[in-house]
Sequence to fold (474 residues):
Amino acid sequence: MDNAGKFYINGKWVDPISSEKMDVINPATEEVITQITLASEEDVDLAVAAAKRAFESYSQTTLEQRLGWLENLLAIYKRRYGEVADTITMELGAPTTMSHEQQAAAGTAHLEDFIVALKKLKTEEILYNGELLLREPIGVCGLITPWNWPINQIVLKVIPALATGCTCVLKPSEFTPLNAMLYAEMIHEAGFPAGAFNMVQGAGPVAGATLSRHPDITMMSFTGSTRAGKAITKDASENIKRVTLELGGKSPNIVFDDVDIEDRIAWSVNAVFNNSGQTCDAPTRMLVQRSIYDDAVTVAKRVGEQASVGDPTKEGSHIGPLVSHIQFDRVQTLIQAGIDEGATLLVGGAGKPDDTNEGYFVKPTIFADVNNNMRIAREEIFGPVVSMIPFDTEEEAIEIANDTPYGLAAYIQTPDAKKADRVARQLRAGMVLLNGSAPMAGSPFGGYKQSGNGREGGLFGLEDFMEIKMIHKL
Fold:
């Protein structure tokens, strides 16, 4: 790419101060795509300074002006949609069908919804007691996004910041940096004022930590591991800045005995295998009522055996590689832990698939007879690994589901609407999804407990980037 190795600061592509380089690897071939530069503290300081200068004027732009820039960006994104999808396939390894139908599509859906939400946002209102309430942009925002759904997360952070009148500095994942460069080009073409949006590449311990500690950053928005979220919170605490976090998950999927077993078990397995299992809200703990457990195990084994891995540049529903050797090694360690702890291996296991020598491919894996104390039931694996856990009663299912440090999502499979509602209200999770439903653009995305705080998407996502001012009546 023309701008690989450069940063986007104050409306221009600039040469970094840092000379530290990093290879961007194609995870399917392990070949080098290009090199990026990893930002130094001085590079981050320049980007924050540009955002701080721009905030004075950008925060005073009108709603109509910002809507105009967002509409421009939407048109540009739709024109370059194929580039985004192809880039994600190249640097993440998401199969091309999935990249076009899900990964790149998320960028369109969220941007369209933010435009609708911004039109509905009340920046001024009179409270029931007669006082005037204002919602104003919070300030300069540091945005750190992950590699697993790169454009999805960039849009969920950059767009609400710009829509509400904030300025920002984006640090995308160093493992999938190229789609962020494309997005920076689109923002530039859309006409946003110089300094409103800035982007640096870099590693978390330097670029991410510098953003989090920076006294001129008013808010940090981070998506990634719970471990990194804790570090960002600590770094941000010195300046008492707002921190919103979308972190890990170990989402329970409760399958009751009144379901169509073939349909719901097949969906449950494939939902974990999607995106190579690299999804924070994947239903990785499959809790199955004991009366149908044996049948469910049979179906899951068959579905798992039918799953295939393959070249992400080819169309189809196959599974691509994991993003990096780091992720590959972590998934292998946890698969082996499941074997060592005595879970029944139905499909897959340690090592690469047969006839696979290159690329970070793993075997789609399903464990049965898991208990909730095993590592594979408690730790986020972030690979195509399903853990099946039996339960007897509704009460036991709720107890197992809630017995986790995470609380991002939970899933319920049952045609009984009353039971679904009753159980959903008792689950400690930010999102409860029924019978294969998926979160819609505009709905608040986020979790309880160590899955983070704050919400992304729609009106709730806009409000996270705003400060409340009260003007008291005389």
Remarks:
- The two ends are 59 Å apart (CA to CA).
- The domain at 7-247+451-471 is CATH 3.40.605.10 (Aldehyde Dehydrogenase; Chain A, domain 1).
- Residues 407 and 448 are 4 Å apart (CA to CA).
